[in-house]
Structures
1.
Amino acid sequence: MTVLEADTRLGGTARTDTADGFTTEWGPNGFLDKEPLTLQWADDLGLHDRLSRANENAARRFIYAHGRLNELKGPPAFLFSPLMSAAGRLRLLCEPFIPQRTSPEPESIWNFAARRIGREAADVMVASMVSGVYAGDAKQLSLQHCFPRMYQLERDHGGLYRALRAIKKQDPTASPMGPKGTLTTFIGGMGELIETAGQALGDRVRLGASVKRVTPADGGHTVELDGGESMQTEHVIFAAPAFAVAGMIEAAEAQTAARLRSVPYASISVVCLAFERSQVKHDLNGFGFLIPRTEGLRGLGCLWTSSLFNHRASDGKVLLRIMYGGATDPGIQDLDDDALTALVAKEIYPILGISGAPTMCRIYRHGRGIPQYSLQHQQVLDAVDALEARQPGLHFAGNAYRGVSLNDCVVSARRVLGRIKAATG
Ligand SMILES: Cc1cc2nc3c(=O)[nH]c(=O)nc-3n(C[C@H](O)[C@H](O)[C@H](O)COP(=O)(O)OP(=O)(O)OC[C@H]3O[C@@H](n4cnc5c(N)ncnc54)[C@H](O)[C@@H]3O)c2cc1C
């Protein structure tokens, strides 16, 4: 096996910087510890004792609305929360009486939420969560492909309240307040996973090896690199972004390539700032907060990294991670670092009562950071599935198809391994 990686390092958007007492992430912060395959992978790499789970206060999540931070609370406290208007809360209570949707047409996440729990809840709670996870626009993304479980719950139970009641019968600890599992990383950050996996692969990894073209050859495939080198192989696993894979298969599979090229990607900018504890008035006791687009700010949300995980900032300092851009604000990529940090100062400092300049600032930009599963995404999946069926030696993994989280990517890799094992006996 050979891993061909175009970059000079492994990991794609997963990368950690550790310097001057701060550990900051370029991309993923962690993963939910609910996926056994990810935990198994960490175990296999000998990283079990390096796992670092989020502190208990991570359960406290906030939404910035009406000019203040509102803690997200489950029922019945939610009914008294100023997060939404009385009319909005009443509308949410009507959810059990909303009929099940019968149309087979794809539905956007926003439409689903507005239909079931009301437009205000869709804007304030659901759309901000979508920008937190997908950096996406809830009105453009497919419910079925981004949140398949939510989609299935309505189909199986007729509605969300009824689904929650059924789930609670089986698991009394189930909560409507967020996904199952604890956010987990490694003591040295997500980069530790990448580096250890890279060491385990050893000289099977080739860095700076950009794949140009993959074409069928006798009983297998020819893989051509940008530098002109080519190699023969029986199986090819495509794990690059959809637009990159489109270029690789264009010559042999023009229609599938066109489908892959149609997958939109959202850009995202991550601003990591550190302060002396005394510079920040807010107690930062929690996960952080999301900002609904209806608030008129450009920031998508702010994670209180040093509250979430140990080993992220030295004593007496706090580390924050603020997200900008996403599908609803691609123009943020045009702001230079000074303009971006000025924007953080204008928008985020007043919310947390921050005074003075940060003691550390790192900015990470991802031009085409996160794939967006649009209302046409099923056509992408159908095209990829058809190609895998037609050409049993071609396999698709990574975040462009069936889930963007690290857990989803691990599941997609295991699926491909299963296919190859089955093919090779
Ligand atoms: C800012 C940000 C925050 C996130 N936070 C979280 C989080 O907290 N939790 C979570 O679970 N997920 C999170 N995600 C999502 C998750 O990190 C990604 O979906 C996942 O890491 C993607 O992995 P991937 O390997 O599919 O794609 P990528 O990371 O995009 O990697 C693709 C790789 O393909 C290589 N490549 C491209 N073209 C070629 C070519 N021609 N030849 C060879 N190689 C090529 C690239 O160099 C790159 O290394 C986040 C993503 C971002 C951007």
Note: The chain has a mean pLDDT of 95.
2.
Amino acid sequence: MTEKTDVAVIGASPAGLMAARYAVLGGADVVIYEKKEEIGVPCHPANSVYRGMMSANGEKIDRSYVRHCIDGMKLVSPAGRTITVETPGYALDKEKFDKFYAEKAEKAGVRIECGYDVCNLSSYFGENVLNVKKTTAAPDEAPQKVKADIVIIADGIFSQTAVSAGLRTMKHPEDVAWGTELEIEAPGIGEEKFAEYYVGSHAPGWKSTYLPMGKDRAAVGVYVRRHGKDISGFLDPWVDRICEMKDIDRSEMKIVSAKSGGDPIITIPDQICKSGIMVVGGAAGQSGIGYAMQAGKIAGETAAQAVSKGDFSKRMLSQYVYKWKDALWTEHIFGRIGLEALRKMDDEEIDELFEVFEDEDVSSKIHGNTFGQGLSVMALMMKKKPSAILKAGALFRNR
Ligand SMILES: Cc1cc2nc3c(=O)[nH]c(=O)nc-3n(C[C@H](O)[C@H](O)[C@H](O)COP(=O)(O)OP(=O)(O)OC[C@H]3O[C@@H](n4cnc5c(N)ncnc54)[C@H](O)[C@@H]3O)c2cc1C
């Protein structure tokens, strides 16, 4: 028998859970299919959020999933120049975070089906049919068919369902960053109050990281673009450097877990909507838990409106794209320009740029919306070191 629902969400991800919750709150009948047997298990490598982004989504931080509170982040240049940004943040227990949001969605009325893999999505003449199979089913068992007026694809960076729906969701898929996060254990390593992000040729195209997770635990990670998926050649030296900087004997350091994945940090969303379908989160090239949740919320609200009007056309669902662009497009474009310039600069140039902001109270000087922040950055550069602006010319290098 074919099941029928107003809205089917693929993936109980941060984006999918928000989308489902807002669709149900708007009056739609919503089901999520999640291929993991248990929400949050195995755990996704993402391990931190900042309060600002969560508040922008109308979400309060809940102590139940917080492992350690931090006061902000330090951005560090190759020569060690440091920019400090004070902004409250949290090291997460990601399994508990996912479970918290799943429970919130269920309480609102969402039905979550765990252990169900959406193996195909066909979408013709405005009719969506999902082929859904229990992950424990025998290989020859026929998939169950589910019809949905609207499908919200939230199945992460490797989304196969967006491909089956014929959508090219990212403008620059070649720019997915490949990242690995190690959780390490060493005496006192997790007690600091700032996350640290290091940029330069040791992590081409993006960053290496240190995140205190409380007491004797911390996470160290490396994210690299355009160097293939195997980034172990960058990770090993980074762990050595962390041990040196934090005064740890490497032989006494224990690696508790290692998790890898693709981060669509500056891939820029492209085709994320068609008749009856919206794509959100990593699957749509929207990176970061906060951004994924914000996109999910907008898509969920749009789905509820579409259901109440009985209009599932591309025109109707494009409200999601317009509202998302209104809120976040400039930020994504500025992010891409910044990270592309960084990828093309050499270490000396990055150091020169950091000199402008070092010792500045960045949190109070750079404010407003993204455009305003861009102008504040330019004004600071003009005042302190006009030649630094020329470094932005790196963006136009053919590298
Ligand atoms: C190593 C690494 C570290 C990161 N760290 C951070 C961080 O600290 N903070 C931050 O904000 N961002 C971080 N990110 C980025 C962040 O993880 C993503 O932006 C965020 O997880 C986006 O989530 P999502 O909602 O798109 O989907 P995901 O979290 O990727 O979830 C997708 C879900 O869909 C399910 N699924 C997939 N296929 C199917 C299917 N066919 N049928 C049913 N279910 C399916 C999966 O099981 C999964 O539960 C990190 C990324 C990486 C790779």
Note: The longest strand covers residues 66-76.
